[in-house]
Amino acid sequence: MASSRTGLIASIFPLWLVYGPPLTVLKWICDGAGFQATPMVVFYALRILMFLLSFILEDWALYELIPDKREQSTALLLVASSYVTWTFQMHTFSNSIETIVILWCLVLMRRMMLDEEHTQVTLCIALAFLGVLGVFNRITFPAFLLVPAVQLVPHLIKKPFRIGIVLVTAMLVTVVAIAMDTENYTGERLRLRQLFSMGIITPLNNFTYNLDPANLAQHGVHPLWQHFVANLPQLLGPALPLLLVSSKKGTLFWSGLTGIAVLSCFRHQEPRFLLPAVPLLLASIKWPSRYARLWTCTWVLFNVLAAMVFGRYHQAGVVPVQSWLAQQEVGISQVFWWKTYSPPQWLLGEASKFINTTDLMGMPRESMYEQLAAVTTCKVDGVDLVNQKHIMLVAPTNTHNLDEKQQVKVPASDKTLTLEHAHTYRRHIGLDDLDWGEDGIWGTLQRVVGMRGLSVYHVDQEC
Questions:
Q1: Which of 313, 330, 363 is the last residue of a domain?
Q2: Which is nearest to 21 in space by CA: 49, 41, 61, 57?
């Protein structure tokens, strides 16, 4: 738990709502079969869940949002054949949930605009519920709904009772979400009169956290054009030129474009932040009439190669290494993760009660060593190291590339650390650590691909 209320930025509300019911069913199945669900069983069960949610809800939403049968077929084919759908959308990212919630908010808005004669109480309640769920899941959620929200305003004015239903429902769901987050972080039930005094509002904390440049610097600071110039081409590939010259500039197109523009105002910009924009933009593309076969071959080749890279290698070692740590019988007390995705701590299972996980994100190497030096102690002669609590470092292999041991001097603390190689998962590449300018193209490929892998090191302090 973070030490300050502004550090409490992740809401339990969407996680409980999306993953709670299927995990309960999984527990019933395992109990009935007479075995306990391991963290890895849960991991793959959630992957299957995300596949089903994407396969059913995402396609269903696009089916409703695009009434023209020909455009509908093109959109469904492009989204289904995109590597983004196969890889990122199958992850338990908050961005994956955000994509589905945004699409269904668009569906409900469209249904509401098509029927001006009825108040549509059920639709209003559902829209308000999804809106609150989306905000508590990711604060960037409203950015993709700015255009359809403006289009919906005249229809709400014609039926003002709709506004009241939406506001009341949103307020009630917000109170429930705040109560769940408060109990999750404090262990205490929130009473209504304590809502403003002790209630933990995670979206507000998240927004405050992201306004601080020092916090963003820990995750990595990017230029404002990163999303448009680097991330969007990476996600769309050969579909990007078609988006510019052969696309339908409708609600879906402008929703995706507006969302990207708003997200570009924040200095930390990862490709996965644009997941909701991918189906919106692909659904706006018209299949090329000229050079159709050439474009189709290019599209297929791009997605196959990208799926291999992002689905098979990119940050692929995080889950296996976390699983390896959970199986170790030595007394691991603390694990530092550096230059990787944030590790899912629940994969440690029972070991999470004893292992303290610290995500150092992409901080400078010297700062990382200082963090390690602050928690390590000198070896004591005559004491069996197996019975001691171990400090471990998990980092990409190319950052150390150790076979045995390496000693590191930490000038800030005048201490000497010993890093001893313990384990390596070879099939891991960190594409967030590319530095074409400093290393050059060949040097970058040698470092990131040639020395691929995610390694674990024992960390000790030499006396």
A1: 313
A2: 49
Task: Decide: helix, strand or coil at residue 3.
Answer: coil
Q: Which residue type occupies 305? A: L
Percent of the chain at pLDDT > 70 equals 91
d(CA 329, CA 456): 15
- Which of the listed residues 275, 296, 313 is the one where a domain comes to its end? 313
- pLDDT tens-digit map of 140-187: 999 999 999 999 999 999 889 999 999 999 999 999 999 999 998 888
Do 224 and 150 belong together in one domain? Answer: yes
What contacts 226, CB < 8 A, 6 or more positions away?
A: 264, 269
Helix axes 292-308, 69-81, angle to 10 degrees: 40
Which structural domain, as residue segments, surrounds residue 110? Answer: 5-313
Q: Residue 356 is inside which H or E element, if any?
A: strand 356-359
CB atoms within 10 A of CB 135: 24
Verify that 293 and 147 share a domain, yes or no.
yes
State mean pLDDT over 266-282. Answer: 93
Distance from chain centroid for Cα 89: 10
